[in-house]
């Protein structure tokens, strides 16, 4: 039986082409998929004399890199080779060995609304009568891709730009019926293009991963759709650079019972994402995602003396000379014994797409695994990879942002899907 896994990516830019090129190079033995837990990490299963430390693929039936077939949508018509060369994330020597395969990946016309990303103006765009027509055209793309490439399964991954901020409207986003009604009524204010991609994917039996901070899956209507279609969904916004540092470093403060006065984070970034985020309405979407991390790790309710009155600020600045090489600065004002102040400064010079690519691989393989293991709805174990973990805020649920607690959730989920007990506690 054909076991191909189709990964259809919304966006054919820096993140997508870095991900695709790395997978193609890795399966030729010409590169290493470093940063991907599914390819490197080991988990303990069993205890005491029975303990073994195994790779994920030795515990659960992950899809192989050889099983993957790629497709994309993008507002620009350039194929994946042309885009990879243009983005200048990877050196030419790391692209040319898979040139022929990359040239075969020609982006489908994107479902796009320029009001949601004013700094982008491509011409490879679907002509849609309304939002419902947009959904139907995306569904047809998925069906045709599945048939053309003989894929047994499909995962749809958003690696496109951040949309403008869409507040949750409980008159539209509360139920699946209301969401569908708004799509059919062409409600362009409350229905973002990303919602159309997510709806189409789930209806076509394809899990959907949101790599940007867009309001898409994090509405009750989409949770109903995931339950109805029995599809797994996760949180949103790849946790790559500064927020990864924040979710990993802030536990040092809480563990040592050190106080926080303020945390100022700023970034410079020059790729297409930086260009889009230079628009205030688009930055607002990212800001909400980035600001959400600290409050659940450094809790005012649990430690009012330490975290009752800190100031948290996040900035992103578009700086074209840096391209994909993002730089993040964090200034952290803390206090200790007898309220004496101290400071911590972190300067992370990272490569945005190099950090995002392994997350793309892990998320696609793990959400595909979850589907095959009969899991649907919110998959909280995937919060390890995402800035905004999915949580049911309508029931007062708090997201888990603590990196090491998220890692425990991930390991326990792998154990359970492999037939082993989930034997680590989250304290």
Secondary-structure blueprint:
Elements: E1 5-10, H1 14-27, H2 37-40, E2 42-45, E3 52-55, H3 56-59, E4 68-74, H4 80-87, H5 99-103, E5 108-109, H6 131-148, E6 153-158, H7 176-184, H8 193-203, E7 208-210, H9 220-229, E8 232-238, H10 242-256, E9 259-269, H11 272-277, H12 280-297, H13 304-307, E10 311-318, E11 327-335, E12 341-349, H14 352-372, E13 377-378, E14 386-388, H15 403-417
Parallel strand pairs: 1-4, 1-6, 4-5, 6-7, 7-8, 8-13, 9-10
Antiparallel strand pairs: 2-3, 8-14, 9-11, 11-12
Helix pairs in contact: 1-4, 1-14, 6-7, 6-8, 7-9, 8-9, 10-12
Written overview of the protein:
This protein is an alpha/beta fold and 427 residues long. Helices cover 38% and strands 19% of the residues. The chain has 15 helices and 14 strands. It has helices at 14-27, 37-40, 56-59, 80-87, 99-103, 131-148, 176-184, 193-203, 220-229, 242-256, 272-277, 280-297, 304-307, 352-372, 403-417; strands spanning 5-10, 42-45, 52-55, 68-74, 108-109, 153-158, 208-210, 232-238, 259-269, 311-318, 327-335, 341-349, 377-378, 386-388. β2 and β3 form a beta hairpin.
